[in-house]
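R.M. (postdoc): so does anyone remember the format we settled on? I'll just put the structure tokens first.
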């Protein structure tokens, strides 16, 4: 399990993960020829950048005050990604495969943040990981819903 020296190290790690996710969605959006898919990927990149900005603000202002306003709520896990295999992104993949890759990425991020939450030692750190878990769970849910809708449309 990952060990961090302090809360700043945890936040820096999370910022890097959000940057990686935004870069993935940006790259994929630029390579996609279907405008709807490209737009969806750009929106996810923007969401990841919002998480990065939230984390950078937390680092600057302190975790307590910044997270006090954040409302935690349960996000349903549709578990669609649990039944998919990991795939590598390649230019020209179909919509279903792009959704599958994105779902697996969000599942992985959620699993990571849940693991870090379990090992968090302070209340502030626990709150931070709860917020990050919720954000990743929202993305996973949105992607799984899109996947379900698409599969229903094609009769699967």
């Amino acid at each position: 399990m990952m060990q961090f020296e302090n809360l700043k190290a945890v936040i820096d790690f999370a910022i890097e993960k959000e940057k990686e996710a935004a870069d993935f969605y940006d790259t994929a959006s630029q390579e996609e020829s279907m405008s709807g898919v490209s737009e969806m990927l750009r929106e996810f990149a923007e969401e990841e950048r919002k998480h990065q900005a939230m984390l950078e603000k937390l680092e600057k202002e302190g975790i307590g005050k910044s997270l006090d306003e954040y409302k935690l709520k349960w996000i349903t896990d549709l578990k669609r990604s649990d039944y998919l295999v990991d795939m590598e992104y390649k230019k020209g993949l179909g919509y279903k495969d792009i959704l599958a890759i994105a779902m697996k990425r969000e599942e992985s991020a959620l699993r990571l943040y849940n693991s870090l939450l379990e090992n968090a030692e302070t209340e502030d750190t626990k709150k931070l990981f709860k917020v990050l878990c919720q954000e990743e769970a929202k993305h996973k849910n949105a992607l799984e819903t899109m996947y379900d809708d698409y599969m229903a449309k094609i009769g699967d």
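R.M.: ...and that's the designed sequence above, right after the tokens. Also worth knowing: The mean pLDDT is 86. The two ends are 39 Å apart (CA to CA).
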